[in-house]
Amino acid sequence: YFVCDVTDWNAVDSALATVRQRGPIRGILHGAGFEAAAKFEKKKLPQVQRTLHVINGGAAALIALTANDPLGWFIGLGST
Description:
Layout: H1 9-22, E1 27-30, H2 45-65, E2 73-76
Parallel strand pairs: 1-2
């Protein structure tokens, strides 16, 4: 697997280009998260917003930047 800041579309695009050099992208396992362990009721709004930005923004980047790849599956994990 490849690690990058999924909120940085240029970093995602670069990682995908590296993967494509090895062959076509057939699937994605998106397991992004932001570690801020705490019970939900103790979380502050900025922590929740950052977590959602990494998960949802990363998924949006991956979906958009692989639109022309022969994906057979896309699995998203919503929590680290």
